[in-house]
Specification:
With 281 residues, this protein is α/β, with parallel strands linked by helices. The chain contains eight helices and nine strands. The structure holds hypoxanthine. Hypoxanthine binds at residues 117-119, 196-197, 213-215, 238-239, 249, 254.
């Protein structure tokens, strides 16, 4: 791990760069995962730039992650969206992985929508399904709140009894129904990766109550909860793990399945955002 903590000054430098480019304050933040960066086509962009142009911003090293920040409007809301995120397996510290969430917090974001690609553990899931994340299990061995607490960002011991917002999850489930597809619901297990799961690990994950597994999201959600954000997590189930009949999961296939689910993710996010009003914010 490179650095334990990111200073508020580093975040504020990035924020001040972004603020100079925009004349609105985003209330909704979106972080897209593997193969899902294209799910933001409907945003009316007012400013976009590559991560490398933002002071102190980490740069995504994963090919299927675009690495671009977008600020714009969508329906009646101002949005900050990130095409591509940072992972522990790239060598980033938890503080670096959650840097974008802190930037969002400083910009006034109140609702955080995260998407990811995940392996299915629940035998009733199929590749291409969308799962609304109801809860997570942090198995990464890391926590972005390790180290001195910044009371200006949040409390020392944030409550995690409802990390994913029930209203947003229900809104996503309703959006799926309206669009004619069933949304799965389940628990996401966050692992450090990057090696995929062994059959014994799959059995273990199923036993402890996980429905899907991936290498992202949990750090950002912890930082988001700490920041007081309401959170919606959507996983695209790209492959199914069957420990009794294991077969190789190919990364190209995973990315391809995620990309094919872009339209579904986009339509769910669109409908959920449409229903967000002053009450939720
Ligand atoms: N494991 C971890 N991450 C993933 C998987 C998986 O099987 N599929 C997509 N992302």
């Amino acid at each position: 791990m490179k650095k334990l903590n990111i200073s508020k000054d580093q975040v504020r430098e990035a924020v001040s760069f972004i603020k100079k480019q925009i004349d609105c304050s985003p209330s909704i933040g979106i972080l897209t995962g593997t193969g899902l960066g294209e799910s933001l086509q409907s945003i009316k962009i007012s400013f976009s730039c590559e991560y490398k142009d933002i002071p102190n911003f980490p740069v995504s090293t994963v090919e299927s992650h675009i690495g671009r920040l977008i600020i714009g409007s969508f329906q009646k809301h101002n949005i900050m969206a990130m095409q591509g995120r940072f992972h522990l397996y790239e060598g980033y510290s938890p503080a670096e992985v959650t840097f974008p969430v802190r930037v969002m917090q400083e910009l006034g974001v109140k609702i955080l929508i995260l998407t990811n690609a995940a392996g299915g553990l629940n035998p009733s899931f199929s590749p291409g399904d969308i799962m609304v994340i109801t809860d997570h299990i942090n198995l990464t061995g890391h926590n972005p709140l390790t180290g001195p607490n910044d009371d200006g960002w949040g409390v020392r011991f944030p409550d995690m009894s409802a990390p994913y917002d029930h209203q947003l999850a229900e809104s996503a489930a309703n959006a799926g129904k309206e669009e004619g597809f069933l949304l799965q619901k389940g628990v996401y297990a966050g692992l450090p990766g990057p090696s995929l799961e062994t059959p014994a690990e799959v059995r273990f994950l199923k036993t402890i109550g996980a429905d899907a597994v991936g290498f992202s999201t949990v750090q950002e959600v912890i930082a988001g909860v700490h920041a007081g954000m309401k959170i919606l997590g959507l996983s695209v189930i790209t492959n199914i793990h069957n420990p009794d009949n294991p077969f190789p999961s190919e990364i190209d296939q995973i990315i391809d399945t995620a990309r094919k689910a872009t339209r579904k993710i986009e339509s769910i996010m669109g409908k959920v955002i449409n229903k967000i009003d002053g009450v939720v914010l």
